[in-house]
Write a structure and sequence with these properties.
This protein is an alpha/beta fold. 27% of the residues lie in helices and 21% in strands.
């Protein structure tokens, strides 16, 4: 297992568990992180804006790219604290010739930090998302690490506060015990399980299938 780095967050003494950095970035990716990433920060205004989709923990961004292509009229926000994953996404959405954003991905915004900091930001407090995606979050399978699991009832209620009236939260994991644990957490929130019927979404983490299960399990949550 890769060594995990404990990250202390400044906002409300939140804690996030996970790596921030991996192997050294290439010269181009370092440039993208330093100069292109700041131009893609999410901007929230009081004025009405396009429907917004949020993906939490997008890894290398495979699914986020699909969301962008399939929802060209929506704003797509990806939140990911692992800078190597952010750099990989930046590489995919920019031209190798001049590092400009490719037209097909001009609706993507990136938040390179713990998503809870974003959701607690006063500028985001009135923002509602049409969809919130969380695919293959770390299951923290050891009993002593259960408190590190992201999808507890408090966090789900926080997401609910930022969900459109008819919006959906889509969760996927190949760790079946974690899936059942999330189901129990949902029972103590103002959300309900709308459906569990979703075709397998292929990502790098899904292909790794560290839990060695036959297929991922999904749930779609809503407020109605």
């Amino acid at each position: 297992m890769e060594k995990q780095e404990l990250i202390h967050l400044e906002q409300n003494e939140l804690r996030s568990f996970g790596r921030r950095h991996g192997k050294k970035l290439s010269k181009r990716k370092k440039y993208l992180v330093d100069f292109i990433l700041p131009t893609l920060a999410p901007i929230f205004t009081k004025k009405s804006q396009k429907p917004t989709i949020l993906e939490i923990g997008f890894g290398n961004g495979e699914h986020l790219l699909e969301l962008s292509l399939n929802n060209p009229d929506n704003i797509i926000i990806g939140a990911e604290p692992f800078i190597n994953g952010v750099a990989s996404l930046l590489s995919a959405i920019t031209s190798e010739t001049d590092n400009s954003i490719k037209k097909d991905f001009s609706n993507i915004k990136i938040y390179p930090d713990d998503v809870r900091l974003l959701l607690h930001d006063k500028n985001c407090e009135n923002t509602k998302f049409a969809q919130i995606w969380i695919l293959h979050p770390d299951p923290w399978p050891k009993a002593r690490h259960e408190k590190r699991r992201l999808l507890n009832s408090d966090f789900l209620n926080l997401l609910s506060n930022h969900l459109d009236t008819n919006g959906n939260i889509i969760i996927g994991t190949d760790h079946w015990e974690y899936y059942e644990w999330i189901q129990e957490q949902v029972k103590t929130t103002n959300l309900k399980i709308k459906s569990t019927d979703l075709e397998t979404i292929h990502t790098r983490y899904q292909l790794k299938n560290k839990a060695c299960t036959s297929t991922p399990k999904y749930m779609i949550l809503s407020k109605n």
